[in-house]
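the two lines:
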Amino acid sequence: MSQLEKSFYSKSSMYSFIVVVILFMSMWIGTGQFSHMDWMLFGYMVSSFIFFIGMTVRLTSWIMRPATHEVIKRSIQKMKSKNSQKRNGKAIFKTLIDNIILQKYIFKRGVYRGIQHWLIAWGCIGSLAITFGLTLGWMHFKLVDASTYQMVVFNIPTIQMAADGWLAQMFFEGLNITASMLLIGLAMAIIRRIRDKDLKVTQRAEFDLFPLYLLLAVTLTGLFLTVSYKLLGGWMHPQLALIHQITVVVFLVYFPFGKLVHLPMRPMAVSVPMNYQETPGVDTRDCSGCGELYSNDEQIEDVKAILGAQAFDLKNDEGDWLADYCPACRRKLRVMSQLNLPKGAGKAAPVQTNNGIHMPGFGRKRSEDFYQPAHSGKEEL
Amino acid sequence: MRKVMYLEFERCIGCRACQAACRECGGHDAKERNYVEYVDFFENRQTYPMLCMQCKDPACARVCPANAIQITEEGVVLSAMEEKCIGCRNCTFGCPFGIPKFDFEENKMYKCDMCYDRTQHEIAPMCASVCPSDAIRFIDHDEMMDLRRRRTQMNLIEGKKPSENNKWDYVPEFFGVYSD
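prediction for all of em together
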């Protein structure tokens, strides 16, 4: 691998090259040596390639971050180990159902937000799946006889369906369905962005609002295409198709570098139950200060490794690490050292002053010889 | 004009007004993000307030595998971005001061953001604006430097009495408290 890596300019260029080769081969297979290419979608195809290259570059640089790298390393180690097979399977299954398909934790942040996010997320995933499937030629439809369609996936003929049956309708209207989901979700999101004043504090136009309006543009122009050919007799269809294509191209090129990239990063949530929780929600490591359970050995090990990789020196004078203490003990350690009462300094005593006026603050108890007359020790010399 | 947070732990009277105020801050979702804790409950009732240090190079952001903790132009370290946070709690274990809190229900981390909606316009954060004993203050940088100097001078008074022929006993015992 390292030999291969040396022949490329960087890691991300190597992975991009591999991704492009795989995509090209999948197209070659999917379209039957490029005999079923849909040249109407050429622009989408080129931007899909840019999307995948951008995504590879983005994800490579993300995984190279010390923190991400450490967590992924631990996940791979867990995947390989035979002892935790059952736990891995359970973690992946539970995360897939709860966090990705149902998105339960967002519903807990608010039902409105949950519905909004679910509609946008699945609208996007559905639309992207259909877009890539068609533009890269992974699937196409073949007319078997006058009233029967057949779906061809990777050049393998699969299900047949009546051309006017409900299944065929579902497939043909697929993008309209996902676009309607997106439209509802986006409207809800925009209303939330306008109404919720708390959001305005940290929201950034280029990060939070741009993708929202971009998605809206894609959705509206896409839906208007349907309106144009169904209701308006194809009015302005070529121009509208071009406008839609432009919005989609901007969307695909933007996707890997903006807010929306949380979509491919999100599945890393599986590493939490898989790497760090033998039983979800139960801590097993005890604090070296108060003895209370606060974390898990593997997680603390990882945190120390990440901090070490970035030259954070969070070692105490006693030789233990701050990560060995629970958050409450860490807060206390900090306060005590600021008050000049490090560990082992004994009990806090009131600050004593020469003039007897009480000062705010804690002090150390003074040794008895402090109260001896000032020059008593010196006279013996 | 640069404003800074200035904490004097020993001034805390344990009224927890700062926590009540924190719950009221916009975007805090009625959950407090600061702490008021006992120094040693079995010894006395002295408490101390604790807020985020807003580190320049925050350990919490460095240990975040999702790159979710962002820093504003002003240097305020924000809570994890909700769309990125995967809920691993690395930040709570990485922070040397034990500041980030974790919401297990909503699966996200939240931490003191110095009431960013207020402080970005140089309005005191909620906790500082209600603290009755000035344990938490939001003051000019110059005023803070003054207070620090005064602390060091007071330390000189607190130091050991000077003895004849030994001026070095002037060296204060408490020099470390707020010195540079």
